[in-house]
Design goal:
A hairpin with a 2-residue loop joins β1 (2-5) and β2 (8-12). 44% of the residues are buried. This protein has one helix at residues 16-22, and strands spanning 2-5, 8-12, 28-30, 35-37, 41-43, 58-61, 66-71, 77-82, 85-89, 98-103, 114-119, 122-125, 129-132, 139-144, 149-152, 156-158, 169-170. The two termini are 30 Å apart. The radius of gyration is 15 Å and the shape is globular. The strands form 3 sheets. A 7-stranded mixed beta sheet has the order 2-1-3-6-9-12-15, with helices on one face. Strands 4-7-10-13-16 form a 5-stranded parallel beta sheet, with no helix packed on it. It has a 5-stranded parallel beta sheet with strand order 5-8-11-14-17. It is mainly β.
């Protein structure tokens, strides 16, 4: 992943989490290759990162790439947990950037959530695709928790299954 300021790359990082952890307010993290995650990406709350993101947050630019995760834990899981201020966009001409989560052991009885995004902060989706291909009681593309805010300006949310709540976005 790369961190971009004023259209100039200021650093490359081995993992997306490394880039998120070092990002400053107003930074854009650009995905430069397809990424397969083995654990949840976490955007921490501004207070836990010395208020670096307090005013503007950070932007995740999918850049036409796919960030994916497949979970087989049989427990609550998410590709992305946002506790801070995050904007997601896809700057590619093709608009093929995607966050894609799947689970092979979803909760049949809705006892835990398998989310593409678990939002506890302030989230804005400008473009890109958010996909959850789980097939259980609580497989949400976007699970917007109490006290959080989600603004969807563009993009697509597809492939959701929420047996007991009849939809893919849950607030």
């Amino acid at each position: 992943a790369a961190i971009v300021k004023n259209d100039e790359v200021v650093g490359y990082y081995k993992t997306l989490q490394d880039a998120i952890d070092i990002a400053q307010a107003g930074d854009t993290i650009t995905v430069v290759n397809n990424v397969v995650l083995t654990k949840t990406l976490v955007v921490p709350a501004a207070a836990t990162t010395f208020s670096r993101r307090a005013a503007t947050g950070i932007t995740l630019d999918l850049n036409g790439k796919t960030v994916s995760m497949a979970d087989a834990s049989g427990a609550a899981a998410a590709l992305l947990k946002n506790e801070g201020i995050l904007t997601i966009k896809d700057s590619s001409a093709e608009k093929t950037g995607m966050l894609s989560f799947s689970t092979t052991t979803p909760s049949a009885a809705n006892t835990y959530a398998s989310n593409t995004i678990s939002n506890y902060g302030v989230l804005t989706i400008e473009s890109g695709s958010i996909v959850n291909s789980g097939n259980g009681g609580a497989c949400y593309a976007l699970d917007n928790y109490a006290g959080s805010t989600a603004t969807i300006k563009g993009g697509t949310i597809t492939g959701n299954y929420a047996q007991e709540h009849a939809g893919g976005i849950f607030t």
